[in-house]
Amino acid sequence: MNLKNYVDASEPKLTKGAEDRLKDLLTQWNTFDQERKSIVETEMQEYNSLFRSLEIPAIVLPDSNE
To answer: pLDDT digit string (tens) for 6-39?
Structure first.
């Protein structure tokens, strides 16, 4: 977040290197964000449907503090 705050600030003047690095990081983030969306919106839905169709009881793990 430090780079984003730096890039968003009006002073000091934004350097080309900082601008390029932010662009690289945002490209990387978009890749991870798309993967997350795929998992949540598709793969988890398929898993939940299969789980329900097999009538498997939920697995509840004990809290690590217990």
So the answer is: 677 777 777 888 889 989 999 999 999 999 999 8
> In whole angstroms, what separates CA 57 from the centre of its chain?
29
What DSSP character marks residue 35?
A: H
In total, how many domains does the chain have? 1
Here the tokens at position 49 are: 């449907």
Per residue in 41-60, pLDDT tens? 888 888 888 888 998 876 66
Domain carrying residue 11: 2-44
Amino acid of residue 2: N
